[in-house]
Amino acid sequence: MLTLPNLLTLSRIVAVPLLVGFLWWPGWALGYAVAFALYVLAGATDYLDGYLARSQGTVSKLGIFLDPIADKIMVAAVVLVLVGTRDIAGLNIIAALIILLREIAVSGLREFLGGLQVSIPVSRLAKWKTTLQLVALGALILAGALPDLPWIKQAAFAGLWAAAILTLITGWDYLRTGLKHMD
């Protein structure tokens, strides 16, 4: 249970309150810069935990359960704080809402289907969606650390909207698959 991949996944969950703190009080100890470094480190564990689990043959039920939860916790926390600090504002809140609502809906669908002993594997497109979400949110944090470079924030919002579009597509794919099991 306490394999290196699982510990990396757990570290991502434990890092979220620190990340939120640095984002919420950006003037505190170079807030956005430290938050960006922590976010990049946490994002790297997302790749590394899965890679290590597969390469070492230590894929576990705990890891399969925790990894997507860790992703969703990190994404949701960052989105909510960036909306709260007005780093995500205006129409860009719609992209953030699409991302959050899809994550909640797909989690509920997975829970429902789990009760039916039906598993929906994560698609390659969903992995790209998660990567794009993480990159876009990381870019928004970086934009807070480098406010004199407005192109970073513009690129981040373009990435956020692209992630929202992939979020809708993958959400629809999961829903369509799930509907086949609802009588």
Overview of the structural elements:
- With 183 residues, the protein is mainly α.
- It contains 6 helices and no strands.
- The protein has helices at 4-24, 31-56, 61-84, 92-115, 124-145, 150-179.
- α2 packs antiparallel against α3 (61-84).
- The radius of gyration is 17 Å and the shape is globular.
- The relative contact order is 0.13.
- The model has no long low-confidence stretch (mean pLDDT 90).
Q: Indicate the proportion of strand residues.
A: under 5%
Annotation, overall tally of beta strands: 0
CA distance, first residue to last residue: 36 Å
Report the C-alpha radius of gyration, rounded.
17 Å
The total count of helices amounts to 6
Biggest sheet overview: none
What integer is the average pLDDT? Answer: 90
Q: By helix and strand content, what is the structural category?
A: mainly alpha
Helix residue percentage: over 70%
Low-confidence stretches: none
Name the shape in a single word. Answer: globular
User: What is the H/E string?
Assistant: HHHHHH
In summary, what is this structure?
With 183 residues, this protein is mainly α. The chain is built from 6 helices and no strands.
Helices and strands in order, then pairings?
Blueprint: H1 4-24, H2 31-56, H3 61-84, H4 92-115, H5 124-145, H6 150-179
Tag the structure with descriptive keywords.
single chain; mainly alpha; globular; 6 helices; 183 residues
